[in-house]
Design brief:
By secondary structure, this protein is of the alpha/beta class. It has a single domain, classed as Glycoside hydrolase/deacetylase (TIM Barrel). 34% of the residues lie in helices and 17% in strands. The chain is built from eight helices and eleven strands. The strands form three sheets. Strands 1, 4, 5, 6, 7, 10 and 11 form a seven-stranded mixed sheet that branches. Strands 2-3 form a two-stranded parallel sheet. Strands 8-9 form a two-stranded parallel sheet. Helix 6 runs parallel beside helix 7. It starts with a helix and ends in an 8-residue tail after the last helix. The C terminus is likely disordered.
Length: 247
């Protein structure tokens, strides 16, 4: 490991919804006000964090020296309409790319996978996802049914990975290379699912929670993400990590 690459880290930031809470008094930690989201983007811009696109990140798995010392990858889960309506204009204002993980069974529908937990609301449809792709948001897999992998047998897990990848590739006309475990749940045997991911053609997979990833990344199928809500302190989450040498 060269000294150059060992000084590097990639902070993968995890978001869900951006904008105003639904006007029904439904409380949700996963909704980030637009002004707060802009504040997070400003912090990255003003504190030496270089926001990279997915292609740059994937290239950095094999060539860690190609990554910035403080790289950030912006990710969103599920594909809520607010990503197109509210988050995208903010990203374009800063010139930042991002990644969106969508469960293919719910494209153009409602988030019924979170019934009773989150307010039911609209998800992006295929035209929305194509628009996001056009604007620098890479759409990747969040499975098909958004079920926890620990509740699925290995055959169904494999079906979720292969089916969602195929549907996204067909609808968006591009290869799908990254997976995000629903609820951050990689199942009872993570080693087994990692082999299936690799065989299916995925280059990386994201969990939910954790800190920045050290570079070089030793296991791209267990990438940690900083889960961000409306009350998160991004400066503490990022700068509490020692980026010079091993923590």
């Amino acid at each position: 490991m060269s000294e150059d690459s060992s000084n590097r880290s990639v902070a993968i930031l995890g978001f869900h919804k951006v904008g105003k809470l639904p006007p029904v008094g439904w409380d949700s930690w996963f909704y980030i006000p637009e002004v707060t989201f802009i504040g997070y983007l400003q912090y990255l811009e003003e504190n030496g964090w270089q926001v990279i696109d997915l292609a740059t990140f994937l290239s950095g798995l094999d060539s860690p020296h190609s990554l910035p010392e403080k790289a950030a990858l912006l990710t969103f889960d599920d594909g809520y309409q607010s990503i197109l309506d509210v988050a995208l204009p903010c990203l374009l204002r800063f010139g930042y790319p991002a990644v969106l993980f969508v469960p293919t069974d719910f494209v153009g529908g409602r988030n019924t996978f979170d019934a009773g937990v989150e307010k039911e609301e609209a998800m992006c449809d295929w035209e929305d996802l194509r628009e996001l792709e056009h604007c620098g948001v890479s759409v990747q897999s969040h499975g098909a049914s958004h079920r926890r992998f620990s509740q699925l047998d290995p055959g169904v897990q494999e079906q979720e990975l292969i089916q969602s990848k195929a549907v996204l590739g067909d609808q968006l006309g591009k290869p799908v290379k990254v997976f995000c475990y629903p609820y951050g749940d990689s199942g009872a045997e993570p080693g087994v699912i990692e082999r299936v991911l690799q065989q299916a053609g995925y280059q990386a997979a994201c969990l939910y929670g954790g800190g920045p990833n050290r570079v070089p990344i030793t296991n791209p199928y267990r990438l940690t993400r900083l889960a961000l809500g409306p009350d998160s302190d991004l400066s503490v989450a990022l700068e509490s990590y020692n980026f010079k040498g091993v923590a």
